[in-house]
Write a structure and sequence with these properties.
The chain is mainly alpha-helical and 96 residues long. Helix content is 27%, strand content 6%. The chain has three helices and two strands, in the order βααβα. The protein has helices at 11-19, 25-32, 56-64, and strands at residues 2-4, 45-47. Helix 1 (11-19) crosses helix 3 (56-64). The N and C termini lie far apart (68 Å).
Length: 96
């Protein structure tokens, strides 16, 4: 079965949406020749193997409620700390 990637979905989100379990993630990567961390583009069509493990209750929850997992977490983003504890004399802390 083929399904389309939606906005802001990672492969983990896509697998959870169409299989209901993260246990199917490795099978999804193999079937689509992808890495778990590869970014997906919107409207890409991916293959969902028929023999893949599915949790029908979770898939039904997403389908019936029209919920779409689309988190696409890309890691923490930190602001540069320019406080007094991060300053280095003569480099970032200039004595005048």
């Amino acid at each position: 079965m083929q399904e389309t990637v939606l906005h802001n979905q990672s492969l983990i989100d896509f697998t959870l949406h169409h299989c209901g379990t993260i246990e199917s993630l490795v099978a999804m990567t193999v079937a689509n020749n992808l890495s778990i961390t590869d970014p997906l583009t919107v409207k890409t069509i991916l293959e969902v193997p028929e023999a893949i493990r599915k949790d029908e209750d979770i898939v039904g929850f997403y389908t019936d409620g029209k919920y779409v997992p689309a988190f696409n977490y890309s890691g923490p983003s930190y602001a540069i700390d320019e406080g007094i504890g991060e300053m280095i004399i003569e480099e970032t802390f200039i004595v005048r």
